[in-house]
Amino acid sequence: QLSNQLHELETLLDCKITSLDALGLDEDDEDQTVLQDTAIQQDLQYKGIEISTTWPKDGDFDIHPKRRKEFEQFKSLYVGVGAFPSKLYLTQLVKVLSINHYEEETEQQFEICLEYVKRLVSVLEHECLDPTKRISDKLRVLEKTLESELSVNPFAVGLVFAQRRITVLTLELYFEQKI
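Predicted structure:
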């Protein structure tokens, strides 16, 4: 029963749970210096990016209500990370976007959604040229914090918590392209 519950949790969190034993480590082995139970918590100050006046208003489009909710989350993403990472996300989204048959999205609504995304990409491409909008202060602070920690210990492991999956996916795209 515990195994089933762990599997359900892994599925829900989209992760893999492991243990010291599974990693081949023994808690009592004094020679193992792999683990260090030090956590650093910091309160970081930053400011978000304001939505541009050139941003297309989804109210002007007959977008399916479910998509409208997704675009509201995208606005929050943009404010949190900036134009360039948001553009990376949209570029990936366009490749996998399809009609939402489950929510009974019509072909016309889907085409309008694609048009809206293309307009967003166009606005973001323009905003990427503005250094104050390319990446947000929030992302800049996160990046500097990670660089600082990795300069001290190149094998450091960090956890970044986010409220939305869209943010995690975007951060992954952003940091992958920096490697």
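Summary: The mean pLDDT is 81.
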